[in-house]
Structures are given as C-alpha cells and as structure tokens.
Specification:
This protein has 108 residues and is mainly α. It has three helices and no strands. The protein has helices at 3-56, 61-78, 98-107. Bound molecules: zinc ion (ZN). Zinc ion (ZN) binds next to helix 3. Its main location: cytoplasm.
Length: 108
C-alpha cells in the first residue's frame, strides 16, 4: 500500500471539504441577505397597503392590525434584535439570523 498516496488523497479531500464548507457559508449568507431584502420590501408593501386602507375606508381594519403585528416584529429585527423564540429581544451580534427570518415568514 502506498501510504504517501493515501495521505495525499486525504489532504486533497480535506482541502475540498474546506472549499465546500466555505461555499456553503457564502450561500447561507446570500440566503440571509435575500430574505432580509424580501422582508424589507414586505414592510414597505405593508406600509403602503395600510396607508391605502386607512385612506379608502375602515373596513379592512382586521388585516391592517395583522400587518402591523408583522411590521413591528420585522422592524425590531431590522433594528438589530432577535425576534425568534430562541433569542427573542436580544441583540443580533452575528448579523442575519435564519431563525428570526423563518419565524417572520411563518407570520405572513
Ligand atoms: Zn434570531
């Protein structure tokens, strides 16, 4: 058995796993960025819809309130706090949180 070749193969594999891990990390970052962008747009959308609802009539008050609940949570998130069950109310120190984002999306 050629030990040298086996070691070389292991080293190579380790390197590839490292690369894959890095790729996974940057993909995760991109997903978080996309979700955050999406949730910002959703806030804007809700704001516009609420404004329109208030102007036109008071019939849609139920949906307005639901929108405002989401709005408050999403706003809190964008101000840098966790809204997920795990760390609710604590400061987000490591950037985006997937738990928060998935929680926000469950609310919609
Ligand atoms: Zn969180």
């Amino acid at each position: 058995m050629d030990k040298q070749a086996v070691f070389a193969q292991v080293a190579h594999l380790e390197e590839r796993i490292g690369e894959l891990y890095g790729e996974l990390g940057s993909l995760k970052k991109k997903i978080i960025e996309l979700l955050e962008e999406n949730s910002k747009l959703q806030i804007e959308n809700e704001n516009l819809r609420n404004r329109m609802n208030r102007k036109s009539s008071k019939q849609g008050e139920g949906s307005v309130q639901m929108g405002e609940g989401f709005d408050a949570l999403a706003r809190l998130y964008h101000e840098g706090f966790h809204v997920c069950n795990a760390q609710y109310g604590s400061l987000r120190t490591q950037g985006g949180c997937m738990f928060c984002l998935s929680f926000l999306y469950k609310e919609v």
